[in-house]
């Protein structure tokens, strides 16, 4: 399975619009892996997680035909994960998207925003409201939505994804996982784990994981055998406010067997 990290930043992007912090200044100078757009991952061209405002740019940058996406999983309603207005671009009158429906999976609030954006337009989406911990067979994968601790006003979801014989934990925006999610993960095994490390060295781990939370999660996974032999663990969804450049993140996570994602990275499982 091909895993394509299309974007790897939190809401603000790096370097962030307007920002004059040292990290943004250095990221502007260095470019390359320090240039991060809002987070999304594509699996094999037909399964995508989240629909950020940089989706049009991703299609230019990577030469992607977004109409090849059969299943779109939405984690939550924050605008770096769902720019609902652009979902209308696939509706009749804006696109000739053909007969094939794009199936969209998510919880209440993302769907409400998408329906508002579609505003009665004729469209070819099929919406599937998922329930945490209830597996769903999509067109391209078996998915299990898991609970995150990210926004107390919304049911935010992580996804376990089984596709072409490979298993992935898509873990952002997660915060420190709720107990139910730890319990579900206990007897599972993954080929790829994607975790968020939005906040760097800050002292708390609610809403977003910090460095320590990521390291503890990796240690737990090693201990309970949640990682298959040769499994890969990646961190993504970085904020400039963490004050860490790509090189700093590699220094922090490399010794722990955790790899740092960057925009455009392709991983073959
Ligand atoms: Zn986010
Ligand atoms: Zn900044
Ligand atoms: Zn969020």
UniProtKB/TrEMBL annotation:
Keyword Amino-acid biosynthesis found: no
Metallo-beta-lactamase domain residues: 66-217
Keyword match Lyase: yes
Record-linked Pfam families: Lactamase_B_2 (PF12706)
Reaction it catalyzes: 3',5'-cyclic UMP + H2O = UMP + H(+); 3',5'-cyclic CMP + H2O = CMP + H(+)
Domain of life: Bacteria
Molecular-function annotations in GO: lyase activity
Record keywords, A-Z: Lyase
Functional description taken from the UniProt entry: Counteracts the endogenous Pycsar antiviral defense system. Phosphodiesterase that enables metal-dependent hydrolysis of host cyclic nucleotide Pycsar defense signals such as cCMP and cUMP.
Listed name of the protein: Carbon-phosphorus lyase
Organism name: Paenibacillus silvestris
């Amino acid at each position: 399975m091909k895993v394509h990290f299309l974007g790897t930043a939190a809401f603000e992007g790096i370097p962030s619009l307007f920002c004059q912090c040292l990290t943004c200044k250095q990221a502007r100078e260095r470019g390359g892996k320090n240039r991060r757009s809002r987070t999304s991952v594509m699996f094999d061209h037909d399964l995508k997680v989240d629909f950020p405002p940089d989706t049009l740019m991703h299609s230019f940058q990577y030469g992607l035909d977004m109409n090849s996406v059969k299943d779109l999983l939405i984690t939550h309603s924050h605008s770096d994960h769902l720019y609902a207005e652009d979902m209308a671009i696939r509706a009749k009158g804006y696109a000739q998207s053909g007969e094939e429906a794009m199936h969209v999976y998510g919880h209440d609030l993302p769907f409400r925003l998408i329906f508002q954006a579609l505003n009665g337009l004729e469209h070819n989406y099929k919406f599937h409201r998922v329930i945490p911990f209830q597996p769903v067979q999509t067109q391209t994968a078996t998915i299990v939505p898991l609970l995150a601790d990210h926004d107390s006003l919304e049911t935010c979801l992580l996804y376990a994804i089984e596709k072409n014989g490979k298993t992935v934990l898509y873990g952002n925006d997660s915060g420190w996982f709720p107990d139910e999610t730890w319990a579900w993960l206990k007897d599972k095994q993954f080929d790829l784990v994607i975790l968020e490390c939005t906040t760097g060295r800050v002292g708390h781990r609610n809403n977003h994981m910090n460095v320590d939370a990521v390291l503890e999660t990796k240690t737990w996974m090693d201990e309970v055998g949640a990682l298959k032999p040769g499994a890969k663990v990646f961190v993504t969804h970085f904020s400039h406010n963490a004050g860490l450049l790509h090189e700093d993140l590699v220094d922090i996570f490399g010794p722990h067997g955790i790899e740092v994602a960057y925009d455009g990275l392709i991983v073959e499982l």
